[in-house]
């Protein structure tokens, strides 16, 4: 990737070995990208399917994929952003175990890559509120999926 | 179960159908059992294995099982508790999708029930701190596992 979109962070996370079952970090309140706590929820995405573009007006997303594999695409069309016009793509899985922080104001869509369960955890600074998000169809932002 | 241990909550959670992959609630800051945000992490437990008794002095646990099946046993030996001496057992899975809130001061151990990945999410009010917990061997509290 050439450049990371302004406000986006891609942070390595620890997986701690335990003979009875490993522990996986997700987010601490002292971590980079933490912007307050509103809600944590899971979202799943079937193999090959894409949940299309969504933009949050106030919510910061902190995304972790503890099982399966998910491809996230972010698009920056913010008027005053130093990275306006840029796309970023990140593929998250337990094998490449990272947290992706997505600031409000950019577009994000994601696709299921694993053939079985693909699960993301979002640690959000706000509770779900349909009024703080905008949804558009996949075709409205052209990308080589 | 006769009676729930004082401070323990067992709360039904929503699973929201989506043709591309469902959404699963975990915890909102306005939910019962929420006691502040310190950290979220995952822990896994292999089939048949038991992670033995642990007591937190200050941490409230909020446990959700998005995949697999995990059996949790809680034991209350708090001197002034109205439920002193009681054991509670809860089995969590996506099929019986609930959140288990465990207050500080009680003992908890858990066992992997599913034959594949058993994963819990803990939404904790504190960051991990080995000084605020006590660990003892499984045999130190007798229970019919």
N-to-C SSE string of chain A, H for helix and E for strand: EEEEEEEEEEEE
Class by alpha and beta content of chain A: mainly beta
What is the average of the pLDDT values of chain A?
97
Roughly how many Å is the radius of gyration of chain A?
A: 15 Å
Helix run count of chain A: 0
C-alpha end-to-end distance of chain A:
16 Å
Q: Low-confidence stretches of chain A at least 5 residues in length (pLDDT < 50)?
A: none
Task: Give the strand line-up of the largest sheet of chain A.
Answer: 1-9-6-11-4
Q: Main beta sheet of chain A, described?
A: 5 strands, antiparallel
**Fraction of residues in helix of chain A:** under 10%
By DSSP, the count of extended strands of chain A is 12
Beta content of chain A comes to 35-45%
Characterize the overall form of chain A.
globular
Greatest interface and its participating residue counts: A-B, 34 and 34 residues
Q: Quaternary status of these chains?
A: homodimer
What would you say this structure looks like, in words?
Two copies of one chain form a homodimer. Chain A has 145 residues and is mainly beta. Helix content of chain A is 0%, strand content 44%. In chain A, a hairpin with a 6-residue loop joins strand 2 and strand 3. The interface between A and B is medium-sized, with 34 and 34 residues. Strand 3 of chain A pairs antiparallel with strand 4 (39-44) of chain B, so a sheet runs across the interface.
């Amino acid at each position: 990737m050439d450049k990371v979109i302004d406000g986006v962070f891609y942070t390595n996370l620890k997986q701690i070995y335990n003979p009875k079952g490993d522990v996986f970090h997700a987010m601490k309140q002292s971590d980079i990208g933490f912007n307050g706590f509103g809600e944590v929820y899971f979202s799943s995405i079937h193999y090959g399917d894409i949940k299309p573009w969504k933009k949050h007006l106030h919510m910061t997303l902190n995304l972790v994929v503890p099982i399966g594999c998910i491809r996230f695409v972010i698009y920056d069309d913010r008027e005053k952003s130093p990275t306006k016009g840029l796309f970023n793509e990140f593929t998250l899985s337990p094998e490449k175990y990272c947290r992706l922080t997505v600031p409000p104001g950019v577009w994000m869509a994601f696709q299921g890559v694993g053939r079985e369960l693909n699960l993301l955890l979002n640690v959000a600074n706000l509770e779900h509120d349909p009024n703080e998000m905008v949804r558009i169809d996949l075709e409205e932002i052209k990308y080589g999926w």
